[in-house]
Model the fold of this input.
Amino acid sequence: MQVIDTRVDTTSEDYQENYRAMEERVADLRKELETARSDRPDKAKARLAEQNKLSVRERLDLLLDRNAPFLEIAPLAAKDMYDRKVHGAGIVSGIGVVEGREVIVHANDSMIKGGTIYPLGVKKGLRTQAIAMENRLPIIYLVDSGGAYLPLQSEIFPDADDGGRIFYNQAVISKMGIPQVCGVMGLCTAGAAYIPAMSDEVVHVKGTGAIFLGGPPLVRAATGEEVTADELGGADVHCRQSGVSDYLAEDDSHCIQIIRQIVKALPPPRKAEVGVREPKPPLYDAKEIYGIVPRSLSVPYDVREVIARMVDGSEFLEFKALYGPTLVCGWAYIHGFPVGILGNNGVLFSDSSLKATQFIQLCDKRGIPLLFLQNINGYIIGKEYERGGITKDGHKMVNAVATATVPKFTVIIGASFGAGNYGMCGRAYGPRFLWMWPNGQIGVMGGEQAAHVMITVKNDQLQREGNPPLSEELVRQIKGPIVDAAEREGNAYYSTANLWDDGILDPAKTRDVLGLAISAALNAPLRSDVYGYGTFRM
Ligand code: COA
Done:
């Protein structure tokens, strides 16, 4: 494989300005992550101490192997939503290592409104389960939750992808043979009671853990019966009498110790085999990506410079380098794992779409995971290109992306607009994971373009009706809110708050995250036995 020869001038003013701008974005990201991690009301901290419970982070520290990485999923979910205090949607979720085994963890944070489940908490739970299913990762639930956040119950309960789906998924996960272990580390009230009930094995903490369909206040209201939480659904009740729980733990640490033993006793995973090589770092410093990525999304740059700072030895075997130049395709290794990379170098034309289609088929046939580096404004438009069949060539690419069954990974490193999002494996195309860089923007189109479309439509309408076109003032009034909304809602933070992605990444850490994610993905078979595609329109 050839080493990518860099052309970046790290002394140029432009590079330095880009670097400072990205450094600032990354500093903001760190600040946001720290707030999400530690901003908890004093009242909640005091209550936790009073109950002699560990915080969710302390529980995870005990559960996960020391010195092994923890790949947190959507840590900024629900950012700026609700009362701006439901950090991470009230749940910590992520891939970590327990007794040498890759697992996914889903843990309530009881310091956020008693661990109650908000609408985005449901979405995060479903995402965690989807990751477990796609990658065949054992799932560990640490439950400490007052069940549904009642003021928003209508957004949590009734629909197909609401709370009920969590327990439905648990049944499916169990049928798939993926282990599910549950620690009852606080209240598991109402819906939350089904999480232990539907798990394979349940460890129940004495004194603080309780499982019941209706808590003491509800029982009192419904039947007049006076009962404490412990009498109703404590560890003794469920380990000795009902049989809902399987192991009794004296306290939080003991509970975690038992869970670790359960994981240790699981049969070893059968990881998919890919041609792994000895990993080696890139030749160039990953932080140079800060200076390479322009401050504005409209400024083009060579994605090979990013690839050079992500792949082992900066080595890249470029496929069809002379054809379809607006899409760079080629093979490389990341932390020793083989990958087929597709990175945008401009809008997608017919030739670049056909190149992508061929490349995806090759990777899929050979069992090589696919990595999409999205910086895309869309497919080319216009009379010439429609006549040349851009729609049918774009369709081939979208078809191949949708049906390829090797693990797919997507990083939005800049723009993600229009059908380009689809062709480059946006969330709807089933990447195992999707992340954004802090400069990323996502939407049907950019704000300026969207405003221009709306103004053109309005002027055409006025002309049809025999009226004069919009005045400059009216144009401004229409344009302003459209551009503002596109900027606000296309922003990486808005995306991650809504769980459209699995998190925002420091560009310099992307390579390491990808290494962890590829390793996790190999817990599932490399690709489906049913290899094939839909009909390609020729
Ligand atoms: N919906 C909305 N808010 C809830 C809630 C619920 N289901 N359960 C608790 N909260 C809120 C409380 O109002 C309190 O809010 P505040 O911080 O603004 O005062 C916060 O969560 C913490 O509750 P608190 O009772 O002070 O803490 P705790 O640690 O002593 O107990 C629970 C936490 C969850 C065990 C307890 O509040 C409880 O039993 N809640 C009701 C559970 C229930 O019956 N749920 C049915 C859902 S279907």
